[in-house]
Amino acid sequence: MTLSKTLKTENPDEYWMDEGIFVKEIVNTPTISGFSLARCRLPQGAITRNHRLNVAETYIIEDGNAMIYLDQQPYKVMKGDIIPVAIGQSQYIKNVGNGDLIFLVHCTPRFTMDQYQAI
């Protein structure tokens, strides 16, 4: 087996997460437990559920405009913005742009669903 096969993500295709967002796992595998990386897509006008995670996150906005709410404080974000989200911080994001909001989410350590808590 080649190294690329060993490290390939277990979820290569975009899927719908009940939080209200489409997710494509780029790196999320037990063999790399220190971090995960996903590309997220939030349709125009959509908003995710208010939630918190037991991992630190960094959002990297690739395309679109949004309002992100961190501990209920609103922040306008756009292409090129990098947003740190602390462990346990409440958060949700609303797409306020004219198309899909596309952003990367880097989690440390690796994200697993048992770390997600809806608020």
Can you put this structure into words, describing what you see?
This protein has 119 residues and is mainly β. The strands form three sheets. A six-stranded antiparallel sheet has the order 1-2-3-10-5-8, with no helix packed on it. Strands 7-6-9 form a three-stranded antiparallel sheet, with no helix packed on it. The chain has a single domain, classed as Sandwich (Jelly Rolls), CATH 2.60.120.10. The protein has one helix at residues 3-6, and strands at 15-17, 21-29, 32-42, 51-53, 56-63, 65-70, 73-78, 82-85, 91-95, 101-108, 116-118. It has one helix and eleven strands. The chain starts with a helix and ends with a strand. Residues 1-9 have low confidence and may be disordered.
CATH topology (level 3) name: Jelly Rolls
Strand residues, percent: over 45%
User: Which strand order spans the largest sheet, edge to edge or round the barrel?
Assistant: 1-2-3-10-5-8
Query: What separation lies between the terminal Cα atoms?
Result: 42 Å
CATH superfamily: Jelly Rolls
Point out poorly predicted stretches. 1-9
**What is the number of strand segments?**
11
Number of domains: 1
Architecture in CATH?
Sandwich
Structural class: mainly beta
Helix content: under 10%
Determine the number of helices (DSSP H or I, runs of at least 4 residues). Answer: 1
Largest sheet: 6 strands, antiparallel
H/E element string? HEEEEEEEEEEE
| C-alpha-based Rg, rounded | 14 Å
Highest CATH level, the class: Mainly Beta
Shape: globular
Mean pLDDT: 90
